[in-house]
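Q: Convert this sequence to structure tokens.
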Amino acid sequence: RRGAPDPPQPTPATRALPSAPAPPKVLLVTTANLFVWDGSNRTVDMTKRPTGGLTLTHALTRHVHGLGGAIVAVDFVRDDYDVAERRWEGIPIKCVRRDAAVSRLTADVVVTTSLALDVVKWATAHCDAQAFAAMCHDYSGAPWGPFGHVDAKQRAPLRDALAGWNLLCDSKHVTAYHERFGPASVTPRLCYG
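A:
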């Protein structure tokens, strides 16, 4: 018939766009003296000592926050509080006294800013994650190899505590050092440099 509307046409099938994977939930575990200075001389005022490690930790803090992750700063010095919510550059930092009773923290990935035995043990004891990684800026913090400066009593416990961890190394040279001298249970990874 003239003037009658055209019959409806079938809509072409549309393909669903692939969904982007959700970013991993990251938890950064660092030490409180990198963010907290109370003038007590019981901690090192890191604001007056801008080392490469501090610069990297601050950059990691900004990046983890940008990913929607969380930052926990463990206080190994002060004992006048258990948990304190602080802010650094507007970023929430959860400061936790070393021996404070805290609920287990969960993440896809836990990254520590140090290889120090206390930090590694704290992260392992308080965090559930699919993967653990430690920033590794040089040779001296590792419990192996000729340039390690870890106290002799802490070498075996630290080596055991790092089993299954990734070391995020800052150069090809540091990565090669840990591949050569580290145990097979630890995986060094070049993360920049």
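Strands lie at 26-31, 70-75, 83-88, 91-97, 105-106, 109-112, 127-128, 131-136, 166-169, 187-190.
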